[in-house]
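I am still getting used to backbone structure tokens and would like to learn alongside you. Please make up or recall a protein chain and show it to me in full. Would you write everything just below, so we can both look at the same thing?
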Amino acid sequence: MAVAVVTGASRGLGRALARALAAEGWSLVLDARGAEALGEVAAGLRSPVVALPGDVTDPEHRAGLIDAARSLGGVDLLVNNASVLGAEPLVPLAEHPLAGFRQALEVNVVAPLALVQAALPLLREAGGRVLNISSDAAVEPYETWGGYGSSKAALDHWSAVLAAEEPELRVWWVDPGDMRTAMYAAAVPEDDGSGRPLPEEAAVPALLELVNGGARSGRYAVSGRSAKEWGR
């Protein structure tokens, strides 16, 4: 049975993707900071699942995630989904708290790379896959999204380098598109998000298509219910 590690799995896209992978028979190692919410997600899944609450910036927590995956059989898929905005609500760069900017870099850039490094022996053994959740803010200069977008731009770049350095793996960095999530509500509280689809309606089918189809490494953007390679 294939094993996936999914960070930020207690809500939004992470929760929806974990549920979809479980429905397809994946064994799961799930991470989130909120123990209660993560436990509720895990309790609703029928696949083998290990739920480990913690902070992805904590080296001991990251090691625990990989150890748990090893106990289930390895790492076939690593989903780096956990993210922070750096400021809630979003603010212009002139007002952006530097502590929040550092936190966004630590959570959105450094921690995912650290998890890849920890999982790499198991990923190589499995010919595995890395799915990094990015954003259109990584490439578009949206006002007030500068801190978050900068972190996702850095994530995109090291993802591309990793794909070049590890050609036996599949590495995807994906803009999941507009979604109705708690993160978006915190970013732009004046927008109720009612016109945006839920993650399971739009992004998850496209991400499953990538995972199941073995698409080549690259940057993808969700369009409709499919993931299109960037620039194609």
Observations:
- Helices lie at 12-23, 35-43, 59-72, 98-126, 146-165, 182-187, 203-213.
- The longest helix spans residues 98-126.
- Residues 3-229 form a domain with the Rossmann fold fold (CATH 3.40.50.720).
- The chain has one domain: 3-229.
